[in-house]
Write a structure and sequence with these properties.
The chain is of the alpha/beta class and 381 residues long. The protein is built from ten helices and 16 strands. The strands form four sheets. It has a nine-stranded mixed beta sheet with strand order 15-14-13-12-6-11-10-7-16. The structure holds alpha-L-sorbopyranose (SOE). The site of alpha-L-sorbopyranose (SOE) has 5 residues, from helix 8.
């Protein structure tokens, strides 16, 4: 695993726990954790259960005893690391969004396609596809329970940047993160929409905005818990992204991604309306799915709250008895299960780098639309 921030912890947990609950066809060995700072990498490796730590990812990728590379670094290094790993014959799991630019994502998708010819697998870490309730939602749509999809509303709402004095971390720098709320959380809203509906976003029109243009530079530590210095730096990414889009079928979708939605902590919400039914999901209540069956007699109509904790629900079998909830971290175990299974079976895991490239095109189209006024921009699919 390369990187050891927040996502490093989440992925480590997935690698550690998945084989203990799921019958994996292959046994992952948590071999090496790589970080630029030797002491930091070693401390994280010890804490999360990796056998060794290292500081040079190129040396680690060259090792014969490494089969899989998990990239959990900021976006500015995804392309270089993932392409090198694929070329070295390693299966690659890469955090979302796939890259910082379409150009990088195109190179990554091309490398992934070439590697696939040699049996090498790659996947993007859009983990919310692996929440049982969102997978169940996808199943309901695929079974036709919603009929023809007419309208989607997808939003990812957080408020962790409301404090204008919060330090300027890498997530607020375009050269490191690619974009702000748009790529960090809007990308999840796009991926989840495409996953559940089974349709791609074909055109968008949007607006992105930065509310706090300057912030104190980061001193000690990292992330929001880091200290602020008296010097200030420019925020070069968006804080809010709003856009509308059209799906392949012509259905309309609206998207919202913000780090300034007061009181909303991690609300990835999606509501889908179809000719036969509707569904609604909110990550802040991730064990639940709301379903409205419009085919019932009018007297019985209403959204029903399905607790997605039955052993027959997606991914739930190996976990706890009915009604015993899962949390944020379980998606990372499901991600490991799916990835390792695909490696063993020799199938293409989804979301593929091609899927990640498409999301990148949507993000870029939103940026172009915002910069150019209000034009509709095709996403290239
Ligand atoms: C920060 O906004 C963040 O951690 C994202 O980077 C993650 O992808 C999302 O899952 C939660 O919020």
């Amino acid at each position: 695993m390369i990187g050891h921030g927040f996502m490093g912890a989440a992925h480590s947990q997935g690698w550690r726990v998945a084989p203990r609950f799921f019958d994996l066809p292959l046994e992952p060995e948590m071999a090496v954790l790589v970080g630029r700072n030797a002491a930091g990498a070693e401390a994280s490796a010890r804490k999360w259960g990796w056998d060794e730590s290292a500081t040079d990812w190129r040396e680690v990728i060259a090792r014969d005893d490494i089969d899989v590379v998990d990239v959990v670094t900021p976006g500015d290094t995804h392309a270089e690391i993932a392409i090198a790993a694929l070329e070295a014959g390693k299966h690659v799991l890469c955090e979302k969004p796939l890259a910082n630019t379409v150009e990088e994502a195109e190179r990554m998708a091309a490398a992934a396609a070439a590697a696939a010819e040699r049996g090498i697998r790659s996947m993007v870490g859009f983990t919310y596809r692996r929440v049982p309730a969102t997978t169940f939602a996808r199943d309901l749509v695929a079974e036709g329970r919603l009929g023809e999809i007419r309208q989607v509303r997808a939003e990812y709402l957080q408020d962790w940047l409301m404090d204008a004095e919060a330090p300027l971390t890498w997530r607020m720098q375009k050269d490191r993160a690619g974009s702000g709320a748009l790529g960090d959380i809007g990308a999840h809203a796009v991926d989840l929409t495409e996953y559940i509906t089974g349709q791609r976003v074909t055109t968008v029109s949007g607006i992105i905005e930065t509310l706090v243009e300057e912030r104190p530079l980061l001193g000690e530590g990292s992330g929001l818990s880091g200290t602020a210095t008296s010097e200030r730096g420019k925020v070069t990414v968006d804080d809010i992204a709003l856009f509308t889009g059209r799906l392949e079928s012509g259905a309309l979708a609206s998207f919202e991604a913000t780090r300034f939605r007061t009181g909303r902590k991690n609300a990835l919400r999606i509501e889908i309306s179809g000719s036969k039914g509707a569904l609604a999901f909110d990550l802040e209540r991730l064990n639940e799915l709301e379903f409205y069956d419009a085919t019932l007699p009018a007297t019985g109509l209403g959204f029903q709250r399905i607790l997605v904790t039955e052993s027959d629900h997606p991914y739930m079998g190996p976990w706890w008895p009915t009604g015993h909830m899962l949390g944020y971290e379980h998606g990372f175990s499901h991600q490991v299960y799916d990835f390792v299974t695909a490696i063993d079976e020799g199938t293409q895991p989804r979301p593929s780098f091609e899927d990640g490239l498409h999301v990148q095109r949507v993000l870029e189209a939103v940026e172009r639309s915002s910069a150019s006024g209000s034009a509709w921009i095709a996403t290239g699919d």
